[in-house]
């Protein structure tokens, strides 16, 4: 096709990448984002959860990054743990304010009796990886600062308060990839974050990639996800020219660093039995599980698709997931 010409004979930019009409990358590098997210969120309303309070706060002024705090109203006199939740969206979409992420965090705070911290991070292609990883690290450093500062957010004080010695990182999809990065970035004991102590990581349908297709990737598309969209996410989020075997996409790729020597906190990897990313999540968990000293468990929800806990938060599978996460937190809350 011939490119349209401008009034001065200049070529008009063409659409180089189109993600569901919500995100377009033009040939001149311009990024267009739609303000309508109904296609993704299914017009899900923000839940009114009377047992949980929430508010927004800035955690990184230079990049104008916000997070949302969720605190249960009715708790015992004991201190409560902290859950840091990183949303999904292929590194290209998503925000703490999107209804299905917001509603899930309300449920996490209520069901787990925890203070939930849900940070945003810079999105691709305006900010390609490792920007999201850097922002996630900044969020944990912000949490550390709350633990040591006399000028901390008052939600971390008063009442029973929060226990900075019991912090858990949950990541959904691309957020699961972020959780992987944080687990190996800070290692076991998270000395750099002291007195914050991350006790475990939960990777929910983690977004990993690779040049060689897996069986589940070659399988039927999901209702909301297909292989073409996953590939677009990688083209838009990885450093320009990188393949899906880049270490930030494929933890076990040909140029990825060895992970055997790095000690990490306990990890739980969860995937739906019908999701395209299932095989990568399963392989990731089992490869780590074989490594000496790593406590990694893998759980698969039969017939469930990617993000089932966000899409149907009141389903039996979503309720079972919350119980599993709660048990995981209880099992590793008092290990020295």
TrEMBL record:
<dbReference type="InterPro" id="IPR013094">
    <property type="entry name" value="AB_hydrolase_3"/>
</dbReference>
<comment type="similarity">
    <text>Belongs to the 'GDXG' lipolytic enzyme family.</text>
</comment>
<dbReference type="InterPro" id="IPR050466">
    <property type="entry name" value="Carboxylest/Gibb_receptor"/>
</dbReference>
<dbReference type="Pfam" id="PF07859">
    <property type="entry name" value="Abhydrolase_3"/>
</dbReference>
<dbReference type="InterPro" id="IPR029058">
    <property type="entry name" value="AB_hydrolase_fold"/>
</dbReference>
<protein>
    <recommendedName>
        <fullName>Alpha/beta hydrolase fold-3 domain-containing protein</fullName>
    </recommendedName>
</protein>
<feature type="domain" description="Alpha/beta hydrolase fold-3">
    <location>
        <begin position="83"/>
        <end position="309"/>
    </location>
</feature>
């Amino acid at each position: 096709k011939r490119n349209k010409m401008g009034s001065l004979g200049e070529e008009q930019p063409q659409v180089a990448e189109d993600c569901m009409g919500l995100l377009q990358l033009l040939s001149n590098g311009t990024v267009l984002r739609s303000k309508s997210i109904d296609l993704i969120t299914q017009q899900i309303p923000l839940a009114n959860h009377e047992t949980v309070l929430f508010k927004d706060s800035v955690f990184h002024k230079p990049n104008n990054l916000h997070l949302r705090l969720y605190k249960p109203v009715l708790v015992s006199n004991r201190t409560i743990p902290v859950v840091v939740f990183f949303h999904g969206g292929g590194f290209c979409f998503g925000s703490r304010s999107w209804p299905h992420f917001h509603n899930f965090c309300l449920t996490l705070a209520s069901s787990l009796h925890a203070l939930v911290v849900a940070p945003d991070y810079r999105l691709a292609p305006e900010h390609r990886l490792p920007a999201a990883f850097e922002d996630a690290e900044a969020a944990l450093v912000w949490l550390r600062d709350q633990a040591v500062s006399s000028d901390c957010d008052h939600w971390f004080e008063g009442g029973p308060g929060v226990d900075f010695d019991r912090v858990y990182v949950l990541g959904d999809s691309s957020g699961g990839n972020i959780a992987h990065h944080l687990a190996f970035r800070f290692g076991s004991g998270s000395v750099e974050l002291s007195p914050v102590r991350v006790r475990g990581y939960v990777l929910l349908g983690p977004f990993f990639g690779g040049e060689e297709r897996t069986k589940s990737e070659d399988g039927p598309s999901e209702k909301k996800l297909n292989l073409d969209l996953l590939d677009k996410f990688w083209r838009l989020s990885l450093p320009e020219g990188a393949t899906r075997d880049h270490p930030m996409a494929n933890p076990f790729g040909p140029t990825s660093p060895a992970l055997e020597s790095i000690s990490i906190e306990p990890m739980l990897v969860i995937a739906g039995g019908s999701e395209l990313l299932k095989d990568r999540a399963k392989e990731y968990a089992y490869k780590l599980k074989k490594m000496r000293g790593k406590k990694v468990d893998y759980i698969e929800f039969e017939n469930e698709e990617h993000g089932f806990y966000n899409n149907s938060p009141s389903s039996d599978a979503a309720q079972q997931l919350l119980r599993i996460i709660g048990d995981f937190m209880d099992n590793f809350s008092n290990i020295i």
